[in-house]
Amino acid sequence: MLTLYHCTNARSFRALWALEEMGLPYDLHVLPFPPRKRHENMHDINPLGTIPVLFDGDVRLTESVAIPHYLATKYGPTDLAVAPDEPGYGAYLNFLVMGEATLTFPQTIHLRYQVFAPREERRPEIARDYAEWFGSRLRNVETMMGASHVAADRFTMADISVGYAVMLALSVGLEEFVSERLRTYFESLRNRPAFQRAIAAQGPAA
Ligand SMILES: N[C@@H](CCC(=O)N[C@@H](CS)C(=O)NCC(=O)O)C(=O)O
Questions:
Q1: CA of residue 142 to ligand 1 center, whole Å
Q2: What's this model's pTM, rounded to 2 decimal places?
Q3: Which of 23, 64, 125, 178 would be a feasible disulfide site paired with 11, CB 3.0-4.6 Å?
Q4: What is the pLDDT of residues 182-199, one digit of tens each?
């Protein structure tokens, strides 16, 4: 059985969306944020104290872009992953990692200093710096994407990775950095039935 620990609209949404795209049965635990402080025994579930956490029997995954690829390659075959012998393989892997390591990383430092830190520890100038850094990275990522999807000319798990970074930008005050083209791209992702099922599965916004 697959079990996912998730917080509403957090990075673990990538894993939830991937489960829905794959049509796999799963148990979902929606935790209060931040789980490290608000969910008892969180460090037993994941020593890092973070979500997502996916258990597949004894196997534990804690990275939001590893989980979609794991599901596609373990429970495929599916076009949601790109195989090593396909021309788009390199771009697929690159965008899969880029969504988290290049885009969501500066977004979360921005959020930390703008929103999550106790009021007296917030640093608006650092928050702004990371927001602009995110913006310039997003502009450059956009120049590398394919016309309709990030890689392989079809929807893949790499779109879940990058699409989530766009979704986060649009919901946490970073929308000024999202171009019209990326808004249209995200709209096409948001209209996917699996995206809508994932939104419904996580319940009302926290
Ligand atoms: N690189 C990891 C980062 C995981 C992570 O930092 N998750 C955040 C949620 S968006 C979290 O659990 N934050 C709570 C905390 O650090 O206390 C991933 O992509 O899953």
A1: 24
A2: 0.97
A3: 64
A4: 999 999 999 999 999 999
